[in-house]
Design goal:
The chain is an alpha+beta fold. It is built from eight helices and ten strands.
């Protein structure tokens, strides 16, 4: 009987499990990094690094990258927001839905609606984002008014950026193997951009080199390099 009481007392001392709702908070938007990530300062505590779920903004070094950031600044800079925390990624960032106060504007949907960001369809949670993006494309709003060559999906852009050092090293190696008399010419290969969620069978049948968006766990690592 005494042992049962000890077990019960120990259980009472353990911290209660925290529900997702208890992680949600309100705060003031601070520094805005790009079109999908920024800091929010709660009433008490330190700034929280957040990233909007289901969207991917152009990198700052891409065409429209600074415009996307400016659009988010206009929407929420120094504003009060409610942060619905969905999860925490392996780097400690909060993956969130954010609602501007007091009008409760869904910030991510507003960015998609106005054509400032891409929908990340590989891990889409709210399929209404796709309809908003399709409407923005049809109306040529925001980045969808850019020339096709300037509308490279940000996940594809990050992939190509990571390949540059590898390509340079390969060219240097080929030059050394050739005796250094002629500079090696890097091969130019045709490719297609595959949106997240594309059918792999169709990619194989195309017989073109294909760049496949990285799996979710790898994509998290790539996003952290931004």
């Amino acid at each position: 009987m005494a042992r049962a009481w000890l077990v019960l007392a120990a259980a009472c001392l353990l911290p209660a499990a925290t529900s997702a709702d208890e992680l949600d908070f309100s705060g003031t938007v601070g520094r805005i990094f790009d079109g999908d990530s920024f800091l929010v300062r709660p009433a008490k505590g330190r700034d929280v690094d957040v990233r909007l779920q289901d969207i991917d903004a152009p990198e700052k070094s891409q065409p429209y990258g600074n415009t996307a950031r400016a659009a988010l600044v206009k929407l929420i800079a120094d504003r009060q927001v409610f942060v619905d925390v969905i999860e925490t990624d392996r780097y400690g960032r909060k993956v969130v839905r954010v609602y501007r106060e007091p009008d409760r504007l869904d910030v991510a949907k507003a960015m998609v609606r106005d054509g400032h960001v891409w929908v990340y369809r590989r891990t889409i949670h709210d399929r209404s984002f796709i309809e908003l993006e399709d409407a923005a494309r049809a109306s040529r709003r925001g980045l969808w008014a850019l020339p096709p060559d300037d509308r490279l999906p940000p996940w594809q852009y990050r992939y190509l950026q990571r390949q540059k050092p590898k390509r340079a090293a390969r060219v240097a190696l080929e030059g050394a193997q050739a005796g250094g008399f002629h500079q090696a010419i890097a091969p130019v290969t045709a490719g297609v951009v595959i949106l997240p969620g594309a059918e792999r069978g169709r990619e194989i049948r195309s017989r073109w080199p294909v760049v496949i968006p990285q799996p979710v766990e790898i994509a998290d690592q790539l996003d952290a390099q931004r």
